[in-house]
Specification:
The protein is mostly helical. The protein has two domains: 79 residues; 38 residues, no CATH class. Helix content is 69%, strand content 0%. Helix 1 packs antiparallel against helix 2. The two termini are 24 Å apart. 14% of the residues are buried.
Protein backbone atom coordinates (compact mmCIF):
# COMPACT_ATOMS: atom_id res chain seq x y z
CA UNK A 1 0.00 0.00 0.00
CA UNK A 2 1.38 3.42 -0.91
CA UNK A 3 2.22 6.11 1.61
CA UNK A 4 -0.72 8.37 0.73
CA UNK A 5 -3.26 5.63 1.42
CA UNK A 6 -1.50 4.66 4.63
CA UNK A 7 -1.61 8.29 5.80
CA UNK A 8 -5.32 8.46 4.91
CA UNK A 9 -6.11 5.34 6.96
CA UNK A 10 -3.85 6.44 9.81
CA UNK A 11 -5.69 9.77 10.05
CA UNK A 12 -9.04 7.99 9.92
CA UNK A 13 -7.97 5.58 12.68
CA UNK A 14 -6.61 8.37 14.87
CA UNK A 15 -9.86 10.35 14.53
CA UNK A 16 -11.94 7.29 15.46
CA UNK A 17 -9.60 6.54 18.36
CA UNK A 18 -10.02 10.06 19.75
CA UNK A 19 -13.79 9.93 19.36
CA UNK A 20 -14.10 6.54 21.07
CA UNK A 21 -11.73 7.53 23.87
CA UNK A 22 -13.96 10.52 24.69
CA UNK A 23 -17.08 8.35 24.58
CA UNK A 24 -15.57 5.71 26.87
CA UNK A 25 -14.42 8.35 29.36
CA UNK A 26 -17.83 10.01 29.34
CA UNK A 27 -19.63 6.69 29.80
CA UNK A 28 -17.33 5.71 32.67
CA UNK A 29 -18.10 9.07 34.26
CA UNK A 30 -21.82 8.33 34.09
CA UNK A 31 -21.23 4.97 35.73
CA UNK A 32 -19.32 6.55 38.60
CA UNK A 33 -21.96 9.17 39.34
CA UNK A 34 -23.45 8.78 42.77
CA UNK A 35 -26.87 7.20 42.67
CA UNK A 36 -29.55 9.71 43.30
CA UNK A 37 -31.92 9.04 46.13
CA UNK A 38 -34.40 7.27 43.89
CA UNK A 39 -37.30 5.82 45.79
CA UNK A 40 -39.56 4.73 42.96
CA UNK A 41 -38.94 1.13 41.91
CA UNK A 42 -39.58 1.91 38.24
CA UNK A 43 -37.10 4.80 38.32
CA UNK A 44 -34.51 2.55 39.97
CA UNK A 45 -35.02 -0.04 37.25
CA UNK A 46 -34.60 2.56 34.50
CA UNK A 47 -31.45 3.91 36.15
CA UNK A 48 -30.03 0.41 36.51
CA UNK A 49 -30.86 -0.49 32.90
CA UNK A 50 -29.26 2.73 31.63
CA UNK A 51 -26.04 2.04 33.54
CA UNK A 52 -25.94 -1.56 32.30
CA UNK A 53 -26.56 -0.43 28.71
CA UNK A 54 -23.80 2.17 28.94
CA UNK A 55 -21.42 -0.40 30.41
CA UNK A 56 -22.08 -2.78 27.50
CA UNK A 57 -21.57 -0.01 24.97
CA UNK A 58 -18.38 1.07 26.69
CA UNK A 59 -17.09 -2.50 26.61
CA UNK A 60 -17.70 -2.67 22.85
CA UNK A 61 -16.01 0.68 22.37
CA UNK A 62 -12.97 -0.54 24.32
CA UNK A 63 -12.77 -3.57 22.04
CA UNK A 64 -12.77 -1.34 18.94
CA UNK A 65 -10.13 0.88 20.57
CA UNK A 66 -7.91 -2.18 20.98
CA UNK A 67 -8.43 -3.08 17.31
CA UNK A 68 -7.54 0.50 16.34
CA UNK A 69 -4.30 0.31 18.34
CA UNK A 70 -3.46 -2.96 16.59
CA UNK A 71 -4.21 -1.41 13.17
CA UNK A 72 -1.97 1.58 13.96
CA UNK A 73 0.75 -0.88 14.94
CA UNK A 74 0.32 -2.69 11.60
CA UNK A 75 0.68 0.65 9.80
CA UNK A 76 3.92 1.24 11.68
CA UNK A 77 5.11 -2.31 10.82
CA UNK A 78 4.04 -1.84 7.19
CA UNK A 79 1.71 -4.86 7.36
CA UNK A 80 -1.53 -2.82 7.28
CA UNK A 81 -3.96 -3.96 4.60
CA UNK A 82 -2.81 -7.58 4.76
CA UNK A 83 -4.99 -10.21 6.43
CA UNK A 84 -3.46 -11.31 9.72
CA UNK A 85 -4.70 -14.85 9.11
CA UNK A 86 -4.19 -15.77 5.46
CA UNK A 87 -1.83 -12.88 4.55
CA UNK A 88 -3.85 -11.99 1.45
CA UNK A 89 -4.57 -8.31 0.76
CA UNK A 90 -7.69 -6.91 2.44
CA UNK A 91 -10.04 -5.32 -0.09
CA UNK A 92 -9.80 -1.49 -0.15
CA UNK A 93 -13.59 -1.09 0.25
CA UNK A 94 -13.46 -3.20 3.41
CA UNK A 95 -10.66 -1.04 4.80
CA UNK A 96 -12.64 2.10 4.02
CA UNK A 97 -15.68 0.71 5.85
CA UNK A 98 -13.79 -0.84 8.79
CA UNK A 99 -10.26 0.61 8.80
CA UNK A 100 -9.31 -1.22 12.02
CA UNK A 101 -9.98 -4.67 10.59
CA UNK A 102 -7.16 -7.17 10.44
CA UNK A 103 -9.05 -9.82 8.51
CA UNK A 104 -10.18 -10.15 4.92
CA UNK A 105 -13.87 -10.89 4.29
CA UNK A 106 -13.31 -14.64 3.91
CA UNK A 107 -11.39 -14.96 7.19
CA UNK A 108 -13.90 -12.72 8.99
CA UNK A 109 -16.68 -15.06 7.84
CA UNK A 110 -14.72 -18.04 9.17
CA UNK A 111 -14.24 -16.25 12.49
CA UNK A 112 -17.95 -15.48 12.78
CA UNK A 113 -18.81 -19.12 12.06
CA UNK A 114 -16.41 -20.25 14.77
CA UNK A 115 -14.00 -21.88 12.33
CA UNK A 116 -11.14 -19.49 12.97
CA UNK A 117 -9.49 -18.70 16.29
CA UNK A 118 -8.37 -15.17 16.89
Amino acid sequence: MDGKKLDFFKDKLLQKQLSLTHMVQRTEGYGREKDQDIQDVADMAVDSYTKEFNFGKSSGDRHVLQQIREALSRIKDKTYGVCTNCENPIQPKRLEAVPWTGLCVQCQNLLEKGRLEQ
